[in-house]
C-alpha cells in the first residue's frame, strides 16, 4: 500500500514546489514574507484558516477518539468550532485593524515598551513550538506506521526539510495556497469516506446510529458511542471534561498561527468574511469527522484498529504478554514491530481500507501527510515572525535596520525554528501527541487570549497587568501539566489531564489584579486611539 | 490611506464623536450578550454531561441521546450566530465607513 501513497504525496509536494517557485518572487520583502502583501481575499483566507485548523490532530486524532470513545471525542470537534465565535466577535476585525505582523503587535499596540512585547513573543514561541512538535511527532509515527521502511526519525527530518523549503522561499503566499489546496483535498477525502460509510449502511441514518450504539470493542463486548463518559472517566472525569472544553473554546483565540492569518487580508471586512468561510468549512469537516469516526468504530471496530504486525513471533509474544509488550512498546518499535496497543490514529486510514480499498487508503494517507506539511509551515511562519519581528527587530534593534536585514533575519529565524523543531521532535518522537496539542491550547488560552481580549476591551488594562497575566498563565499551565496524570501517572499531584479550568481563570485574574495594582496612564491614554482604529480601520496597516 | 499623522487629541476627538460612540455602543450591544450566550450555551454541554449524566443519556430519537443532540445543536447555534453577526456587521461597516470618509474629508481640507 505504500507505493500509491508515495506517488500521490509526491504529486502534492511537486504542486507545493511549483507554488513556491511562483510565490518566491513575491516574498522578497518582510511584508510579503509575513503577510503575502495583505492581498489574500476573505474567501481564500477562510479556506486557509480551515486548512490550518483541520490538522492531522483533527483528521487522524479526532476520528480516532470518536471511533474509540464516541461522544467524548465529538466534544473536541464541538469546542473547536464554537471557539471561532470567540475569534469572530472579539478578535478578527480588531486584529486586522491594529496589527502589523504578529500577535504581540496587537497586545503591545498601547502597552508600549519592551516587557509586554518580550513576554508575548515568548508565549507565542512556546505555543507554536508545542503545536509544531505535536504535528511533526504525529507525522513521524504516521509515516512509520504506513510505510514501515521509513522510521520516525527520517520521516520527521523529511517533513521538516520539505516544509522549510517552501516557507523559506515562498513565505506566507506559498503557505496560504498550499493550505487552500490541502483544505480542499482533505474535505474531498472526508466527503468521500463519509459517503462510503453511509453507503455501507445503505444510506439509512437509523441503521448507522443503531450500529453506533453497539460498536464492537473486542472480546465480544460492545460500547455505545452515542453516550458520553467513555474517555473522561474516573472521579474527576466531569471536571476534566469541563477543563478541556474551556481550553478549546478560549485557546483558539490565542493561537498565533491562526490569528496571524488575519494580517494577510486587505480589510477588517475580509477578516470577518474569512471567519465566516472558515466556520462553515470547519463545521462541515467536523460533522464528516463524526461520521468517519463512528464509521471506523463500527465498520472496522476498535479491536482491529492498530493491530498490524509483521512478525508472527512478535504477535505470539505480545498476545501472551500484553502488559510487558505495552511497556516495551518503544523497544519493540525500534526493532520494527508494531505493537498492537490500539492506535486510534490509524482509524481514518483503516476505515478507508474497509470501505474503499488500498487506493483510497493511499489517498487518505497522502492527504494526511499533506496536512501535516501544510500546518507545520504555517506554524513556522508564526514562530519565525515572533522571533524576527518581535524579538530581533522590535526589541534588539529597536525598530531600526534595513529591509534586507529584516527579511534575512526572518528567513534565518524560520530556518532555526525549523531545525529546532525537527531536533525536538526527533527527541520526543514517542510522546503522546494529543498531550502536546492539549498543552498548546491550554497555554494559548491562559496567556495570549486573556492579554489580547483585555487589551482590546478594558481601558484601564496596564502593562503590569499584561505581564502578570501572561506569566501567571504560562507558568501555571506548564506546571500543572508537569504534575498531571499524563506526566506523573497514577500518583499525579494534580488530578486533571488538562489544566485549563485552573490556569485560564488564573491568567485572567492575575491580569486583572496586576492592573489594579498600579495605574498606567500612558497605556490608558492610548485606549481611545486603539478603540477608534480597531472599530473603524482608520490608520490600519496596508 | 495612512493616518499616522492624526494627533493624540484628534484620536480622542474621534473617540468622543457621537457617531463613533453610537457605533461602539451598537457593536457592544450585539457582541457582549452574544458572547455570554454562546459561552453559557457551550459550557452547559460539558457541565450537564459531567454532573447530570443520566439526564443527558436519555434517548430522544431512536438511539440518539440528548447529549449527542445537544452536541449537534452547538453546530446549529454557531452557524446561526455567525449568520446573525454577518448580517448585523453590515450596518456597523456602513457607520464605520461614514466616519472614515468624514475624517478623510476633514483631513484633506
Describe it.
The complex is a heterodimer of chains A (542) and B (109). Chain A is an all-alpha fold and 542 residues long. Chain A has one domain (2-25, 37-307, 342-536): Sodium/glucose cotransporter. Chain A is built from 25 helices and two strands. Chain A has helices at residues 2-24, 30-35, 42-53, 56-69, 71-98, 103-107, 114-146, 152-200, 205-213, 237-251, 256-259, 268-300, 312-320, 322-327, 329-334, 347-355, 358-396, 403-427, 433-446, 448-457, 463-482, 485-488, 500-517, 521-525, 527-536; strands at 215-218, 221-223. Chain A has a two-stranded antiparallel sheet. In chain A, α1 (2-24) packs parallel to α17 (358-396), α10 crosses α23 (500-517) and α20 runs antiparallel to α21 (463-482). Mean pLDDT of chain A is 85; it is low at 306-316 and 334-342. Chain B is mostly helical. Chain B has a domain at 35-108. Chain B is built from four helices and two strands; from the N terminus they run αααββα. Chain B has helices at 8-15, 18-51, 53-56, 66-108; strands spanning 59-61, 64-65. A two-stranded antiparallel ribbon of chain B has the order 1-2. In chain B, a hairpin with a 2-residue loop joins β1 (59-61) and β2 (64-65). The two termini of chain B are 15 Å apart. Classes of the chains: A mainly alpha (542), B mainly alpha (109). At the A-B interface, α5, α9, α10, α12 and α25 of A face α1, α2, β2 and α4 of B.
Amino acid at each position: 500500500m505504500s507505493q500509491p501513497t508515495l506517488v500521490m504525496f509526491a504529486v502534492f509536494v511537486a504542486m507545493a514546489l511549483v507554488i513556491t517557485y511562483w510565490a518566491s518572487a513575491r516574498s522578497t520583502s518582510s511584508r510579503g514574507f509575513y503577510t503575502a502583501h495583505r492581498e489574500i481575499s476573505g474567501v481564500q483566507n477562510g479556506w486557509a484558516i480551515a486548512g490550518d485548523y483541520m490538522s492531522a490532530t483533527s483528521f487522524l486524532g479526532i476520528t480516532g477518539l470518536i471511533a474509540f470513545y464516541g461522544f467524548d471525542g465529538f466534544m473536541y470537534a464541538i469546542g473547536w468550532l464554537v471557539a471561532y465565535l470567540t475569534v469572530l466577535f472579539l478578535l478578527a476585525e480588531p486584529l486586522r485593524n491594529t496589527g502589523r505582523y504578529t500577535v504581540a503587535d496587537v497586545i503591545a499596540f498601547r502597552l508600549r515598551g519592551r516587557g509586554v512585547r518580550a513576554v508575548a513573543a515568548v508565549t507565542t514561541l512556546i505555543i507554536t513550538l508545542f503545536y509544531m512538535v505535536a504535528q511533526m511527532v504525529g507525522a513521524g509515527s504516521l509515516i512509520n506506521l504506513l510505510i514501515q521502511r521509513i522510521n520516525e526519525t527520517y520521516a520527521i527530518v523529511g517533513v521538516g526539510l520539505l516544509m522549510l523549503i517552501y516557507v523559506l522561499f515562498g513565505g506566507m503566499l506559498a503557505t496560504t495556497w498550499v493550505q487552500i489546496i490541502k483544505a480542499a483535498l482533505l474535505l474531498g477525502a472526508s466527503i468521500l469516506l463519509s459517503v462510503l460509510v453511509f453507503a455501507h449502511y445503505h444510506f439509512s441514518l437509523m441503521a448507522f446510529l443503531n450500529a453506533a450504539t453497539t460498536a464492537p470493542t473486542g472480546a465480544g463486548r460492545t460500547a455505545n458511542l452515542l453516550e458520553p463518559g467513555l474517555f473522561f472517566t474516573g472521579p474527576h472525569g466531569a471536571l476534566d471534561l469541563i477543563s478541556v472544553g474551556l481550553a478549546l473554546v478560549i485557546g483558539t483565540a490565542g493561537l498565533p498561527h491562526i490569528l496571524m492569518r488575519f494580517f494577510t487580508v486587505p480589510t477588517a471586512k475580509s477578516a470577518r468574511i474569512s471567519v465566516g468561510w472558515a466556520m462553515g468549512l470547519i463545521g462541515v469537516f467536523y460533522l464528516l469527522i463524526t461520521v468517519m469516526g463512528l464509521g471506523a468504530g463500527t465498520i472496522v471496530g476498535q479491536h482491529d484498529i492498530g493491530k498490524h504486525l509483521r512478525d508472527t513471533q512478535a504477535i505470539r509474544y505480545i498476545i501472551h504478554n500484553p502488559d510487558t509488550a505495552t511497556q516495551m512498546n518503544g523497544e519493540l518499535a525500534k526493532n520494527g514491530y508494531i505493537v498492537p496497543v490500539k492506535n486510534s490514529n490509524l482509524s481514518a486510514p483503516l476505515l478507508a481500507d474497509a470501505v474503499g480499498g488500498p487506493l483510497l487508503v493511499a489517498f487518505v494517507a497522502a492527504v494526511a501527510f499533506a496536512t501535516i506539511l501544510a500546518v507545520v509551515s504555517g506554524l513556522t511562519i508564526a514562530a519565525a515572525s515572533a522571533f524576527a519581528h518581535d524579538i530581533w527587530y522590535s526589541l534588539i534593534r529597536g525598530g531600526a535596520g534595513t529591509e534586507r536585514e529584516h527579511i534575512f533575519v526572518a528567513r534565518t529565524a524560520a530556518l532555526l525554528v525549523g531545525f529546532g523543531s525537527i531536533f525536538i521532535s526527533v527527541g520526543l518522537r514517542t510522546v503522546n501527541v494529543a498531550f502536546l496539542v492539549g498543552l498548546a491550547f491550554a497555554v494559548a488560552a491562559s496567556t495570549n487570549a486573556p492579554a489580547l481580549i483585555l487589551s482590546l476591551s478594558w481601558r484601564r488594562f496596564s502593562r503590569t497587568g499584561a505581564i502578570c497575566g501572561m506569566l501567571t498563565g504560562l507558568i501555571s499551565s506548564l506546571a500543572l501539566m508537569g504534575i498531571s496524570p499524563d506526566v506523573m501517572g497514577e500518583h499525579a499531584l494534580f488530578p486533571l489531564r488538562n489544566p485549563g479550568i485552573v490556569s485560564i481563570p488564573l491568567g485572567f485574574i492575575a491580569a486583572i489584579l496586576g492592573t489594579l495594582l498600579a495605574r498606567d496612564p500612558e497605556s490608558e491614554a492610548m485606549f481611545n486611539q486603539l478603540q477608534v482604529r480597531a472599530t473603524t480601520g482608520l490608520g490600519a496597516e496596508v | 490611506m495612512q493616518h499616522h499623522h492624526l494627533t493624540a487629541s484628534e484620536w480622542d476627538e474621534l473617540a468622543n464623536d457621537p457617531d463613533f460612540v453610537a457605533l461602539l455602543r451598537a457593536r457592544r450591544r450585539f457582541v457582549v450578550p452574544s458572547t455570554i450566550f454562546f459561552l453559557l450555551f457551550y459550557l452547559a454541554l460539558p457541565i450537564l454531561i459531567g454532573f447530570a449524566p443520566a439526564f443527558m443519556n436519555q434517548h430522544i430519537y431512536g438511539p440518539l441521546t440528548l447529549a449527542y443532540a445537544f452536541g449537534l445543536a452547538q453546530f446549529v447555534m454557531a452557524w446561526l450566530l455567525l449568520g446573525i453577526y454577518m448580517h448585523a456587521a453590515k450596518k456597523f461597516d456602513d457607520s464605520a465607513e461614514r466616519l472614515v470618509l468624514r475624517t478623510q474629508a476633514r483631513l484633506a481640507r
